[in-house]
């Protein structure tokens, strides 16, 4: 057996473990067999990551079935770390180890001096501890100052001062890699490691040996290594040494969501809810525009694509727009928090820290972001809204008729506009439905007016989040 039977006491000694029929498996076999069972049952590798069902996940499943170490290549914000952490669910829930072992020794085949000595001394009375799968995952963010001691280990001066010789294996203090034995070890941004430390990982990936300060410590490590890197760094011109690249069995390219709908689903799941005493309703077109801002930024020549445009941008902008609407509702006394197009002006602070511009001065950042938002609104409007009354709405702006909008106006101020312009009211109803509340109708009104302006059927005078819409003939 690979795990104790559900509901039965777990063995506490090596003899009990042997009598229970426990069968040791390598981590690779454990991942492979558990994944095979999941796939046979029609379950995905993970439901934690959206948009990878037909691209990344099949490649990762294949790599795990092949028993490979894996490196994920992708720009920031492509869920690489989340994908790695999801692999923990493929491990057995509980794992027996030699109690007190730093490297989670297999009771049947200990690799450390401590484990071997204890099993030799106690035999079937060797105490067993059980480790949950959540504890069998170690993660390290690679930085230039990461040391060999951090990853592999170091001679412990305290143990030497206690009477052990320098060449005694018991004088060693293990790093993250040996301590990850019988588990998963993840290293993020691998090329950021200095070349000297990268060299130290070569044997870990190929021979599973570690060498510490002249000690040839033969630790037959059992672990799966998963790394991440930016494609810009993972080249012959980058900062990763070629022999280390060769040690990874599979290289998998991640990507941003291909569909706006996928990005919206991610935002809905990841955005932090605000604790409010009033309901929050985010209209579909506001969600669509927020997701599109990220999509158009990923194809914009003004934005540096080397570092990417993270999905975190969409999440942060969603939270910012809802916060802007909350601020207005608290001041205006609106019963429901409903974001509008005018609230999109608030995304400048939440966007400018998450994009890098190509050869444009810092004072132009707000202008670039405003252009991205305008393009996203126009795309959403032209793709989803068909205005049968467009001519009637434009005609209603004759005779010096103007409409004011802004992030400081209460919902009630928009009701009079809709009452005075029936064609506009009909268009708004089709956008949000006949049962929409005042806040949703106000939001739809702004969306329709902005769409008419961006498709060159109305004129607009704007000052930040406040705008005045009028006929183009004036």
In short:
The protein has helices spanning about 15-20, 25-40, 55-65, 80-85, 115-120, 150, 155-160, 175-180, 195-205, 240-245, 260-270, 285-295, 310-330, 345-350, 365-385, 390-395, 410-420, 420-430, 440-455, and strands at about 70-75, 95-100, 130, 135-140, 155, 170-175, 185-190, 210, 215, 225-230, 250-255, 405, 460-465, 465-470. It is an alpha/beta fold. The strands form 5 sheets. A 5-stranded parallel beta sheet has the order 4-7-10-1-11. It has a 3-stranded antiparallel beta sheet with strand order 12-14-13, with helices on one face. A two-stranded antiparallel sheet has the order 2-3.
Poorly predicted runs are none
Q: Radius of gyration in whole Å, from Cα?
A: 30 Å
| Strands in their spatial order, largest beta sheet | 4-7-10-1-11
| Main sheet summary | 5 strands, parallel
Mean pLDDT: 88
Total strand count, please?
A: 14
Based on the coordinates given, report the CATH architecture of the largest domain: 3-Layer(aba) Sandwich
Can you describe what's shown?
With 474 residues, the protein is an alpha/beta fold. The chain folds into two domains: 14-253, 3-Layer(aba) Sandwich (Rossmann fold); 260-470, no CATH class. Helix content is 41%, strand content 13%. It is built from 19 helices and 14 strands. The protein has helices at residues 14-19, 27-40, 56-65, 80-86, 113-122, 148-151, 157-161, 176-179, 195-206, 242-247, 260-270, 284-297, 311-332, 347-352, 365-384, 390-396, 412-420, 422-432, 438-454; strands at residues 70-73, 94-98, 128-132, 137-141, 153-155, 172-174, 183-188, 210-212, 215-217, 223-229, 250-253, 403-405, 459-463, 466-470. The strands form five sheets. A five-stranded parallel sheet has the order 4-7-10-1-11. The protein has a three-stranded antiparallel sheet with strand order 12-14-13, covered by helices on one side. Strands 2-3 form a two-stranded antiparallel ribbon. It is elongated. The mean pLDDT is 88.
